[in-house]
Design brief:
Radius of gyration: 25 Å
CATH architecture of the largest domain: Orthogonal Bundle
Shape: flat
CATH superfamily of the largest domain: MetI-like
Strand content: under 5%
Distance between the termini: 53 Å
Number of strands: 0
Number of domains: 2
Oligomer: single chain
Helix content: over 70%
CATH topology of the largest domain: MetI-like fold
CATH class of the largest domain: Mainly Alpha
Structural class: mainly alpha
């Protein structure tokens, strides 16, 4: 029995080691194949640079790369958190009021169908080249996944659960804080994850 447990432990350690090392080996083999293929076919650097040239360019321009990355991160995070600050309260209002839902949902659906990339040139014309157009694009891209997933999550609670809470004397605020909000969190975090990926 002890030997069997020890063997299982060794197998698990080997499996964990393979799970960590195989992706690294795969990436290294891909980079080596890329380097050899470019050298063998003598492809021009402006068409397909070698991995060694990419690394050299990153090292040489590292300071500039960091500066631009910080600017991009600032603009993305500003639009992302602005979308959270507006989308989550709107989703709460949509689920709390049917009249507001009927009023705002067609507007949201209309703007959701508009390609966000088509709005970027308009933002440049309206607001000029700077931070604001980029923040607005990040905001629009992040806004719709957050508001839709949050609204779906707030509505996902079963009517029987709401009836049970009301039969026990729970107020609308208590139903929201103790039932609707906890139920909606997986949907909210899913929307936040999708929005964070798209906002970059």
């Amino acid at each position: 029995m002890t030997q069997t447990i020890a063997e299982l432990g060794q197998r698990e350690r080997r499996a964990a080691w393979r799970a960590r090392i195989l992706p690294v080996i795969g990436i290294l083999l891909f980079l080596v194949a890329w380097e050899l293929l470019v050298r063998w076919l003598d492809i021009a650097s402006y068409l397909l640079p070698k991995p060694t040239e990419v690394v050299t360019a990153i090292v040489d321009g590292f300071d500039r790369l960091v500066d631009h990355s910080l600017v991009t991160a600032y603009e993305m995070l500003l639009g992302y958190f602005l979308a959270i600050a507006i989308a989550v309260p709107l989703a709460i209002l949509i689920t709390a009021s049917r009249s507001f839902d009927n009023f705002i949902t067609p507007i949201i659906l209309f703007f959701q169908t508009v390609p966000k990339i088509a709005l970027a040139p308009l933002f440049l014309v309206w607001f000029g080249v700077g931070t604001l157009p980029k923040v607005l694009v990040a905001f629009l891209i992040s806004f719709f996944p957050i508001i839709i997933d949050t609204a779906v999550g707030l509505r996902s609670i079963s009517p029987e659960m709401i009836d049970l809470a009301r039969s026990m004397g729970a107020t609308n605020f208590q139903i929201f804080t103790r039932f609707r909000l906890p139920t909606s969190l997986p949907y909210l975090f899913s929307g936040l994850k999708v929005a964070a990926t798209l906002a970059v």
